[in-house]
Design a protein that fits this description.
Number of strands: 7
Distance between the termini: 44 Å
CATH class of the largest domain: Alpha Beta
GO molecular function: GTP binding; GTP cyclohydrolase I activity; zinc ion binding
CATH topology of the largest domain: GTP Cyclohydrolase I, domain 2
EC number: 3.5.4.16
CATH superfamily of the largest domain: GTP cyclohydrolase I, C-terminal domain/NADPH-dependent 7-cyano-7-deazaguanine reductase, N-terminal domain
Strand content: 15-25%
Number of helices: 7
Order of helices and strands: HHEEEEHEHEHEHH
Radius of gyration: 20 Å
Strand order of the largest sheet: 5-2-3-6-7
Largest sheet: 5 strands, mixed
Helix content: 25-40%
GO cellular component, one term: cytoplasm
Bound molecules: guanosine-5'-triphosphate, zinc ion
Subunit structure: Toroid-shaped homodecamer, composed of two pentamers of five dimers. Homopolymer.
Protein name: GTP cyclohydrolase 1
Length: 201
């Protein structure tokens, strides 16, 4: 069965906790250690439990967080920008942590969302195996689809452990990605205003 590469809704796992633990035991042995020694005996269970938490994004559709909106905003029609949302995700190539921050903004039409929901959307898409470009686009597109604002801007800056701790070993390098939609992409003033706010993050 081919899986939809652009899938971003809920996905239920067919694998059990016991199978996940057995896989971790294999990795420990493969690395050269003894999964039965005292220090490692509970490790497969802990690893499976941490992965359950770190990959919790598959259990919910982040779009749902955006469905509770407030319409009474007193005619507020300026940019709303939430900066420095902590991002912890895992690169889909190496399953190693990608750690950074996201800046999310939108120009409302008549509906605004509770600000915590912007962070929940970021976390919902981040707690999956990702590439940063896709994560950035998914956050922006979910906000566009559900809130139908005049524009959306998402910037993600993150450090990829697969580059900084191994491989090319570029300690300290960060990757910046952005997805701009609507007037934040097309209108020079809105775009500058959003990017200016992000630059001062
Ligand atoms: N575009 C993009 N690339 C990523 C992301 N995370 C990791 N990568 C890259 O994915 C690539 C995978 O390349 P491969 O050559 O298949 O893997 P590799 O042999 O482990 O590569 P090295 O990391 O160069 O040792 C690497 O260049 C990673 O730096 C991401 O979020 N976006
Ligand atoms: Zn990687």
């Amino acid at each position: 069965m081919g899986l939809d590469n652009n899938f971003s809704g809920v996905r239920r796992s067919k694998r059990t906790q016991a199978e996940a633990e057995a896989a971790v035991r294999v990795l420990i042995e493969w690395a050269g250690d003894d999964p039965n020694r005292e220090g490692l005996i509970d490790t497969p269970e802990r690893v499976a439990r941490s992965y359950r938490e770190l990959f919790a994004g598959y259990a919910a559709d982040p779009r749902e967080y955006l469905k509770r909106t407030f319409e009474e905003v007193g005619g507020y029609d300026e940019l709303v920008v939430l900066k420095n949302i902590r991002v912890v995700t895992f690169c889909e190539h190496h399953m190693l942590p990608v750690i950074g921050r996201a800046h999310v903004g939108y120009l409302p039409t008549n509906r605004v969302v509770g600000i915590s929901k912007l962070a929940r959307v970021v976390h919902g898409f981040a707690r999956r195996l990702q590439i940063q470009e896709k994560l950035t686009a998914e956050i922006a597109e979910a906000i566009q689809e559900i809130l139908e604002p005049q524009g959306v801007g998402v910037v993600v800056e993150a450090e990829h452990s697969c580059m900084t701790l191994r491989g090319v070993n570029t300690l300290g390098s960060t990757l910046t990605t952005s997805r701009l939609l609507g007037v934040i992409r097309d209108d020079a003033r809105s775009r500058e205003e959003f990017l200016g706010m992000v630059r001062r993050a």
